[in-house]
């Protein structure tokens, strides 16, 4: 309890109510009021999430901060919330990112300000609902509801092809989720009328239905991650989305897919997860290697970073299906790290786009001559994206590569290629954009970052360095949960 309220409900509904309050400010004549209410709501959302970490018991594998109330009793649907060592870090990442997005869009967004800020706050609460739901129908409602704010953010504030990108994003993710609902209905029937996710973890299902359920979950989660070959919606969505939309899409929404594998696929259908693990590993390695080479040839900075996200998220699914503690914990660290780094990279591109209104690498050159402070921040994040030791980008990838080598040397070998390709496409982009003489007259007129932009980038820089140098506080909260999950999967191994 916090302030007399159940903590998880507060984490979910406070941002949503703040978002509604922002919408209530009306049109752009009250834009500044909307900005301040949004910032207050986002910061409050982060502050109320902090006790989830400080009061979390890392020694138990039971769900914590549990809330349970009847909802639709005729179908045995309940308002059932709870978190473990997997969900809690992702909620903190979400609540940490939202204030940064609000600050980043403070001056950039000048039209429909209240709707823009309100959409991010509402989405923040909905995503917290996804990470904390322990009832399948409640989870599904939050899961699908998360599409709506992002659909509007891309479709209203995006680029010239925003409508195409928004519809493609919506259709891919919606259609991928429909079979997940079918799987929930089947599990409801075989469990004797329960929508409790924890009850599904104990179902003794034969292999054939497990495989079908796994495929149903895979279509939902693979699109969200996104895995190759269902990744094509992501570059379009990133290119057209406003900067804040790209940040949240990369830092938060992609993690819903990774979370789904750990909450549903592995514990509910463990035999199918083992049976199909070679396919999952192969798809993950294709994403890591092949998509990394695709990123090398991109001329648009946002599209390059989007493909980089697909490649780095391949480490996440690879780690999950190695079935050892290094793999799962490394994948979790990679998810959190990717949230920091990809968000920072998109913000850096947004800083330049706000000044030059171009994302094309060829339109830049010599930016360091005019924006030295920005160039220093951008270099740190580019190095982190390349996997430089001492940054968060190194930790997760290194642990997953170690886990892969323990299973099969060639898994680790191909996964390690990303340390080469990642450095190649990131640093080559950085060199062409930042170094050298000023290549275009428009670059000559660019001004260095202001205090608001320094604040956002400095916070992310501290997060990247802190996690790169001292990841223990993050990893220790997930040990027990991961060990319990792997023990459960091992007991069911064919």
UniProtKB/TrEMBL annotation:
The GO molecular function terms of this record are: NADH dehydrogenase (ubiquinone) activity; NADH dehydrogenase activity; ubiquinone binding
Which membrane topology describes this protein?
A: Multi-pass membrane protein
Keyword terms: Membrane, NAD, Translocase, Transmembrane, Transmembrane helix
Q: NADH:quinone oxidoreductase/Mrp antiporter transmembrane domain spans which residues?
A: 134-418
- Keyword Hydrolase included in the entry's annotation: no
The record ties this protein, via InterPro entries, to: NADH4_N, NADH_Q_OxRdtase_chainM/4, NADH_UbQ_OxRdtase, ND/Mrp_TM
According to its UniProt entry, the protein's GO biological process terms are: ATP synthesis coupled electron transport; electron transport coupled proton transport
Which GO CC terms are listed, alphabetically? endomembrane system; membrane
Compartments reported by the entry: Endomembrane system; Membrane
One Pfam family, short name = Oxidored_q5_N
**Segments traversing the membrane:** 6-24, 36-54, 86-106, 113-131, 137-157, 169-188, 208-227, 239-259, 279-297, 304-323, 335-353, 374-403, 409-428, 454-472
Xref: PANTHER family:
NADH-UBIQUINONE OXIDOREDUCTASE CHAIN 4
Q: Which family does it belong to?
A: Belongs to the complex I subunit 4 family.
This protein is called: NADH dehydrogenase subunit M
């Amino acid at each position: 309890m916090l302030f007399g309220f159940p903590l998880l409900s507060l984490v979910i509904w406070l941002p949503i109510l703040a978002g509604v309050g922002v919408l209530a400010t009306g049109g752009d004549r009250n834009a500044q009021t909307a900005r301040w209410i949004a910032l207050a709501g986002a910061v409050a959302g982060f502050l109320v999430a902090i006790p989830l970490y400080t009061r979390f018991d890392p020694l138990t594998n039971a769900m914590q901060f549990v809330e349970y109330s009847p909802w639709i009793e005729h179908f045995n649907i309940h308002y059932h919330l709870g978190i473990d060592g997997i969900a809690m870090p992702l909620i903190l990442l979400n609540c940490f990112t939202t204030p940064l997005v609000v600050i980043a869009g403070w001056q950039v967004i000048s039209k429909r300000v209240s709707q823009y800020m309100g959409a991010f706050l509402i989405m923040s609460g909905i995503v917290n609902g996804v990470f904390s739901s322990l009832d399948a129908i409640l989870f599904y409602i939050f899961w699908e509801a998360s599409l709506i704010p992002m659909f509007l953010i891309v479709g209203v504030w995006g680029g010239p092809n925003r409508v195409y990108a928004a519809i493609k994003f919506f259709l891919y993710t919606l259609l991928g989720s429909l079979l997940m609902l079918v799987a929930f209905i089947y599990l409801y029937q075989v469990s004797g009328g329960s929508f409790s996710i924890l009850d599904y973890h104990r179902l003794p299902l034969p292999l054939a239905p497990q495989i079908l359920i796994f495929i149903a979950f895979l279509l939902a989660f693979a699109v969200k991650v996104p895995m190759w070959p269902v990744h094509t919606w992501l570059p379009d969505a990133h290119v057209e989305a406003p900067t804040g939309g790209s940040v949240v899409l990369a830092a938060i929404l992609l993690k819903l897919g990774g979370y789904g594998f750990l909450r549903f696929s592995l514990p509910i259908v463990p035999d199918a997860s083992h049976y199909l693990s070679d396919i999952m590993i192969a798809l993950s390695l294709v994403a890591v290697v092949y998509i990394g080479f695709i990123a090398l040839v991109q001329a648009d900075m946002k599209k390059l970073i989007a493909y980089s996200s697909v490649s780095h998220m391949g480490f996440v699914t690879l780690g999950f299906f190695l079935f050892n503690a290094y793999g799962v914990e490394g994948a979790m660290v990679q998810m959190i790290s990717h949230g920091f780094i990809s968000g920072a990279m998109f913000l850096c591109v947004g800083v330049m786009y706000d000044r030059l209104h171009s994302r094309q690498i060829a339109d830049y050159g010599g930016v360091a001559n005019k924006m030295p402070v920005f160039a220093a921040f951008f270099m740190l994040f580019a190095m982190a994206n390349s996997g430089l030791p001492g940054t968060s980008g190194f930790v997760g990838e290194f642990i997953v590569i170690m886990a892969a080598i323990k299973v099969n040397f060639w898994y680790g070998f191909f996964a390690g290629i990303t340390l080469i390709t990642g450095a190649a496409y990131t640093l080559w982009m950085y060199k062409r954009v930042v170094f050298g003489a000023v290549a275009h007259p428009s670059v000559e007129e660019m001004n260095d970052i202001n205090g608001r932009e320094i604040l956002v980038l400095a916070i992310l820089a501290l997060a990247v360095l802190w996690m790169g140098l001292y990841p223990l506080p993050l990893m220790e909260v997930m040990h027990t949960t991961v060990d319990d999950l792997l023990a459960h999967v091992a007991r069911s191994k064919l």
